[in-house]
Amino acid sequence: MNLTNHYLIALPNKSNDMFSSSVVYITEHRNISGAIGVIINKPLGRTLKNAFKDVDFAQYNPSWSNNSLYLGGPVSNDNGFVLQPAITTDGKMFELTNNRNVLDKIANSNFKNNLFVAIGYASWMSEQLENEVINNSWLVLKAGQELIFDIAPHKRYNEALSLLGVKNLSHLYNSGKIIA
């Protein structure tokens, strides 16, 4: 199972942690090294301009200064990470980086109107994510960039469920087991 370019949609049994009601985009998943992803639906209530005083986002794109800053996950949550278009040809849509030089590249690309910056990221050890999926912690959805950039953050969780055909989470459960 390779979950690169997929969304993880948290099920209600993830209710007691930061992943509660989360949608996570998986940027990389390998059997040996595990998985890396970023939560895409939890804005922190701060703009990039307010969060990163040492970066003039307007010099790259005037609208970026007012973009929301997101909670990306529990790992390295004292650093900012940018979701950038993948530069590889292995089919990945996005990569996660904390290299500030990527801002120039994004500003001069077809992606210039879409900037996603998060504090921290999510990481799973080898086979950890597979076990969480098997144990009904996550639903899995093939990713498209529309969910990240075209849907309001507070609607992304329900929209992801809707893309899977799920209108009511309670219909998925039967004695605590997923039946869909």
Mean pLDDT: 87
**Secondary structure category:** alpha+beta
Global geometry: globular
Q: What would you report as the Rg, rounded to the nearest angstrom?
A: 16 Å
The major sheet is characterized as:
9 strands, mixed
Give a verbal description of the structure:
- The structure is a single chain.
- The chain is of the alpha+beta class and 180 residues long.
- Helix content is 16%, strand content 34%.
- The protein has five helices and eleven strands.
- Strands 1, 2, 3, 4, 5, 6, 7, 8 and 9 form a nine-stranded mixed beta sheet that branches.
- Strand 10 and strand 11 form a beta hairpin.
- The two termini are 18 Å apart.
SSE blueprint:
Blueprint: E1 6-10, E2 23-30, E3 34-39, E4 43-47, H1 48-51, E5 68-71, E6 75-85, E7 94-97, H2 102-107, E8 116-124, H3 128-134, E9 138-142, H4 146-149, H5 156-163, E10 173-174, E11 177-178
Parallel strand pairs: 5-8
Antiparallel strand pairs: 1-2, 1-9, 2-3, 3-8, 4-5, 6-7, 6-8, 10-11
Describe this structure in a few short sentences.
The chain has helices at residues 48-51, 102-107, 128-134, 146-149, 156-163; strands at residues 6-10, 23-30, 34-39, 43-47, 68-71, 75-85, 94-97, 116-124, 138-142, 173-174, 177-178. It has 180 residues and is α+β, with helices and mostly antiparallel strands. The strands form two sheets. Strands 1, 2, 3, 4, 5, 6, 7, 8 and 9 form a nine-stranded mixed β-sheet that branches.
